[in-house]
Amino acid sequence: MCCESARQGLRKLWVLHKLSRGHKSELVYPKGKVHEFFTVDRIKELGACSCRKHGCCFHISKAQPPKTFTDEIALQIRNHFTSALALLVSFDIGLTSLIFELIEKGFSDERLTENPLTEQEVYSLLSTTSGHEGPDTLDVIKFYRRQHQFFIPQLVYKSPHLKINSSQSLPFTVEAEIGRGAYSTVYSATLLHEYHDFLDVHVKDGRIAVKTYHDWSAAGGDCIKERTNNEFWGSHEYIMPLQVSLEHRDIFMTIWPLAKHDLRKFLQDDPPEEYSDNPKKAWERFTNLLSALNHIHSSNPNLYGYHFDIKPHNILVRFNGDWAITDLGLAYSKLNDSGVSETSRQGGNERYRGPEVLAHRNYDVWAMGCIGCEIIVWLNKGADGVEQFRKDRMLEEGITTLDNFHHNERLKQPVIDFFREIENHNDDLTRKVAAILREMLEIDPCKRLNARVAEERFGKILGMPPPAENVPRRPSLQNESLSPLRVCLKSFQVRI
């Protein structure tokens, strides 16, 4: 094989991928294809190329005979320098003899992936073959840029936060925007399969979600906080597991398994047969969410935990049908040594926010109770029923209000009417579910069911196994007293 035939073979290996919407597609050479192409025999044949047109026969020192690709060197190149060799071959002035310079300097594929050559290093490398006049500046720039088509960073599951060279391409292709919030945007993407070690149970067929943080003043903090919170709470089966966080070209991002869609979108269509024929399945998956919520609240016996942004948008429907909690960006914890779980922190969504002035550790349970009510409506009246229920909640005492579930320290009348209607429902399971949801929507958070009790109650009526004992129990919420601050603020409560 001469260098020109190798160059022609390389041209068949490249793929185009897009880093994000609005960016042009970038040319890359996947290392798996390159390694498969350059067998030991082909490397030896390439080393024997005497093509003066591309400088293949050039050797570093005229006082020494040209170096040849022995079996040992060919094997060394294939094991550690395959992409480096491909880079040299692709360069339009050849210079395959430079592979020996890379070997001597220790510029292996692994090293060049982690730390690409600087322009000064490229200049020094090319100087060995350019004579006294030195390498052409355009050649240096061209070589510097082209290396990034071959040395693409590896994404390692739960590795420390990655800061990736801005000149490198990322090992995934962004396809479409699938979600947008106040501080972040989520895209669907496909990984280049040989550039990650994510588990198949998390990432199927290389399909991922890429979340970027676009508040320029706080993006880094938002990204690291979500990563930290997911490391702390993300081990539960029904909490979406963050794969890795990274920073590239001044963009902070986190990588997640791709879900089919979120519960908000799911409730905008009528129930599929899986749920219309068997409503119990929906409540089993709802119970799994309560288990995940209890994990956030109680997995550390020394802390009160809070999600603070439970809403359908942050509940994902996986491709296997399971539901899972995501977006721990607002999650928070505090020591429980005082025995008081209230905090002045506020949650992120008006519709599912509870009536308490100070957020109690049952703040998230209220939100789950609201979602549970919408699921009952969805199962019985379809997507149109959910939308009508939302519109009904916007009218209270003749005035237009938010579409939340409470007003003036009581449930809104449409919510009360909803529970009264369910009392006469012909399905025993629906009546029992509604009774639990009603206790999850107690105005007084101290009387509200906590996540573990709600999970136990649902599990009992569904015939599910009791919650695992590895999540510590805490004292009953009904025994938790009001903090002095809450007693003071209660008389000044803002009325919506």
UniProtKB/TrEMBL annotation:
InterPro entries: Kinase-like_dom_sf (IPR011009), MAPK (IPR050117), Prot_kinase_dom (IPR000719), Protein_kinase_ATP_BS (IPR017441). Residues 172-462 form the Protein kinase domain. Keywords: ATP-binding, Kinase, Nucleotide-binding, Serine/threonine-protein kinase, Transferase. SMART domains: S_TKc. It comes from Discina gigas. SUPFAM superfamilies: Protein kinase-like (PK-like). Gene3D superfamilies: Transferase(Phosphotransferase) domain 1. PROSITE patterns: PROTEIN_KINASE_ATP, PROTEIN_KINASE_DOM. The keyword DNA-binding does not apply. ATP binds at K211. It comes from the Eukaryota. Signal peptide: none annotated. This is Protein kinase domain-containing protein.
